[in-house]
Amino acid sequence: MKNKYIFFKKKLSFVCAWRSLLLNRWAKTGVFVIVLSIGFFLRLWKYQYYPFTGHAEEYLFVWSGLSLIEEGVPISWNDIPVYGENNVYWRGVAPNPGPSGGGIGVRLIKPWLDEPPLFSLIVGGIAKLYKQPNFTVISPLVIRLPSLFFSLVTMILTFLVAKKLFGYGLGVISLLIYATIPTVVFGSRLAVPENLIAMLSLLILWLYLKYFERWKIRYLILSIFLASIAGLAKPTGYLLVFFLFFLLIWRKRWQEGIISLICGSLIFLASFFAYGHLWDWSLFLKVFLYQSSRPAGWSSLAYILTNPGFSVEIFLDGMIVLGFLSLWSLAFKKDRSEGEEIVVFSFIFTLLIAVISGGKHDQLTWYRYPIYPFMAISLALLIKEIINNPSFFQIAIFVPLSLANIDLLENPFWKLNYLVQSKVFRPVLFIFLLPSILLMIFKDERLIKLTKAMIVVCLLFSFIFNIWVVVNRFNILCNNTSCPLPEKINLLKIFR
Questions:
Q1: Cβ atoms of 341 and 377 closer than 8 Å
Q2: Burial group, residue 495, by CB count within 10 angstroms (0-12, 13-18, 19+)
């Protein structure tokens, strides 16, 4: 009887353990789904209105893709002198069928050979699916759909990579950061190939990690293939072949590294140059050499660090500035873990791509989009470090930068009537810093807990302000002036 009682007790204990495990899994999955849903909701919220319709960079690709599909030849706008008059297809104003009217003054080129066709075909294919007329200001409601999908996958991959390297908790924080930073949210909407390249860079890294976890060759083959086709979205994407190569030789896997470099380069270069030869080899080389000579210099990095943004204007996002500071902290940290080495390498690699390809002093901020997933993970690591080892010196920088985005809620027509007055700002900043100041003098356990609580409260307010900015940005800018409006399209009509 006693043995039977012990048996049932062990069985009950086993059942309770499994039940606890399942509940824990459901709770973790629920938190992930909630954070992911918040991020996707923010990207969907008025995505057709802001960034404003008529962004010329977006129409480079959709017009080229539609032309390839409908006429079998790439046609799009460009003003570079390499194209002669014999290449000019049309000059004029591309009309905006939306309620605000207007249009984009362009010179259309045939054949347009500035970029390879992959992203153009994706976004042009969506426009064709909705039967949009070419060489018009097609509604962002349609052409931004692929970027929204890429951004959703990128959010998932940001979580998966951070979770695999550092655990579930840091994975969720990384996802929350990437999901809510206004610069990232607004940039994720634009129909530009960098959003696809950002997704591919994370997918390649995730496959790389899976390869060393399970040692199955299919992960390596797929990562090589994805790295090679990234260049067919935009030539800078080809550098992901070197990204994979350096990751492999860092692990001393020289054979796999050399194979990935050779195979990835052959696939991209053969496809890229075959595309140019198909239309006009001489013109293709001229365009390629002209685009390759875009100015870059020693001040390019300084320009990126001091001119944040997601489009052609400066957008002073404090979280982006804090993200770059997290790279500084991680890069100079001694005794980095293997996961930290991977993050800091990925961050610096994508940053250097933007430095060498984004123009010397050009506010072409979409070149920076592939940086941001790694920045989010780096920033999550910095937050973990600040919470685990709070000090006044770190908190004095962290607090004002993490709360800086409240100033993005100011209406530009208020002039000096700021949202947060100086007489409020100064005492609130002092209150946030006070526990860490006292901690410098009195090494007390209660002060440590209070300082950590202040950091958490500061983070909560930071996320609230970020969400508030995203939800209200369009209304704030257009409160006292007229803004361009896109054509309204029923996205469900293709299912009827």
A1: no
A2: exposed
CA–chain centroid gap for 291, Å, is 24
CB 273 within 8 A of CB 265: no
The helix (H) or strand (E) run that includes residue 112 is none
pTM for the full model? Answer: 0.92
For residues 246 and 233, what is the distance between their CA atoms, to the nearest angstrom? 21
Amino acid symbol at 470:
V
Same domain for 260 and 274, yes or no, is yes
pLDDT of residue 12: 46
Read out DSSP for 275-309?
HHHHH-HHHHHHHHHHHHT----TTHHHHHHHS--
What pLDDT, on a 0 to 100 scale, did the predictor assign at position 7? 46
Range of the domain at 253: 146-382
Handedness of CA 119, 125, 128, 132 (dihedral sign): negative
Report which of 284, 296, 286 is spatially closest to residue 116, judged by C-alpha positions: 284
- SS3 for 77? strand
Number of folded domains that form the chain: 3
Same domain, 187 and 211: yes
pLDDT of residue 115: 93
How far is Cα 470 from Cα 445, in angstroms, rounded to an integer?
A: 38
Q: How far apart are CA 317 and CA 314, in angstroms?
A: 9
With a CB cutoff of 8 Å and minimum separation 6, the contacts of 272 are 116, 231, 232, 235, 238
Q: Is residue 191 located within the same domain as residue 136?
A: no
Phi–psi pair at 105, nearest 5 degrees = -75, 125
Structure tokens at 88: 């000019």
Q: What is the pLDDT of residues 71-128, one digit of tens each?
A: 999 999 998 899 988 999 999 999 988 887 778 899 999 999 999 999 999 999 999 9
